[in-house]
Amino acid sequence: MQRASKAALRFVRALLAGADARREGGTFVAAGNTALPAAEARELVAQGVIAGDRDTCRAIAGTAQWLKRQMLDADAFAAQHRVEAKGAEGATMNLAESPLARLATPGPDGAAFLMPHQVEAGERLRRLVERAQLQPRLTMSYSAAHVAGGGAGHSEIGDMAADARKALANLHHELPRDCAEVVLDVCGFGKGLQQVEAERGWPRRSAKLVLRIALDRLAEVYGLSAAATGTGARQRGWREGPRVAMFE
After folding, report:
1. Engineered SS bond to 120: which of 8, 87, 134, 193, CB 3.0-4.6 Å?
2. One domain for residues 39 and 148
3. 156 is in which domain, residue-wise?
4. What is the pTM of this model?
5. Mind listing the pLDDT tens digit for each residue in 167-223?
6. Is there a domain that residue 243 lies in?
């Protein structure tokens, strides 16, 4: 069976949980503002996974079973390709799923560009963006309607997604603008560093440095610290100051 994309899995899950998806331009939008490109939705219809026409898509009798098979296949694939690493607080992370994996992998000299507490901060942001149910077209928008989920949109996306969007709006005020945008693009939406630089007209390797600065600031927000090593080592924060109560 052909493995579906993560976007397709989220879309099908939304169809099973809510009403029919409606076409909006080049995408179909299901419950929870979960969108899928029209071409990919048509492919699911052609495979008999869902039913649909030019303007709507909906789940059918076999949709739930298809999703179950996809999830079982994904679990088996993930187990074969899992690359585990310890985070700053001892939690195990799967770097194979992280957009920061390459930067967290030690080089020939045994040193990595990103430290565990920075990677863990980025992973927390990634999960927050997933809970917020944001589409990439909203990456740069921090208005109350788009990010905080106020007004009618609040009831449409649900309390959990609305709370996550409020947290992302707070993040925009906690980090310098460039840092906030880069860390969201890379950790939240999986953009490559070269793509970030091309979109902003930045010189090569500049996004990499901005990302590390952003992750340092984000780690401070989360209360994550780099661990000192050697005799008498103790856990210490990389910057003094009170912990900001965010993203808990």
Report:
1. 87
2. no
3. 86-236
4. 0.52
5. 999 888 889 999 999 999 998 888 888 889 999 999 999 999 999 999 999 999 988
6. no
